[in-house]
Amino acid sequence: MKIVLASQSPRRRQLLGQMGLEFTTQSPEIDEAAFQGRDAQDLVQILSREKARWIAGQVDPETLVIGADTVVVRDGEILGKPKGEEEARAMLASLSGRTHQVCTGVTVCRGDKVLTQVEETQVTFRPLTDQEIRQYVSTGEPMDKAGAYGIQGLGGLLVAGIQGDYHNVVGLPVCRLGRMLLDFGVDCLALAGR
User: Fold this and answer.
1) Which residues, in sequence order, are bridge partners of residue 24?
2) Which end of the chain is more exposed for a tag (fewer CB within 10 A), N or C?
3) Cα–Cα distance between 175 and 179 in angstroms, integer?
């Protein structure tokens, strides 16, 4: 079965590869700004579905398409990617010593069958000093990440703990996706054992 990941995210590609799947990637052409103003769980569901459906419309109907969208949420406010170093510092300061949520919508579709689910993980930052925030921002790592940090990189030094799926914070809830794929006849563990 041909599988397409509707994303160019290196983190999602790596996680899907770790699941033992062979796949290609394609970038969906959707206007994410058209869907803003919704709550986080609704937004990630819609965006993951739109991404997957857009790619599904470009490929053979028997192709399995996986779409995902991840947001960082603090006190109900969605934190996107920082537009500059000042915004990155402000985001990190607002997360310091507090718990926030990372929500990922995942959609799997093939032909007319579409399945969308959401995973939420609680992430707690340790208290950060202004100097630590400046040092982390100076590495450049926060600049292309929602919430201005990457848990899989130096940002892991800021995280005191998580409750839920670690991979979800990276950008793809591996456990949930594996269960969803079973509904499409794809058993990652069985494939890995061959």
Assistant:
1) 4
2) C
3) 7
Question: What's the per-residue H, E or C state across 12-69?
Answer: HHHHHHHCCCCCEECCCCCCHHHHCCCCHHHHHHHHHHHHHHHHHCCCCCCCEEEEEE
Query: Residue 141 is which amino acid?
Result: E
| Region 168-180 average pLDDT | 96
User: Using CA atoms, how far apart are residues 188 and 116, in angstroms rounded to an integer?
Assistant: 19
Using pLDDT thresholds of 50, 70 and 90, give the confidence band for residue 79: very high
Residue 125 has a pLDDT of 98
Catalytic residue among 31, 39, 42, 69: 69
Q: Is 69 annotated in the active site?
A: yes
φ/ψ of 61, rounded to 5, equals -60, -20
Q: Enumerate residues 6+ apart whose C-beta is below 8 A from 179.
A: none
pTM: 0.92
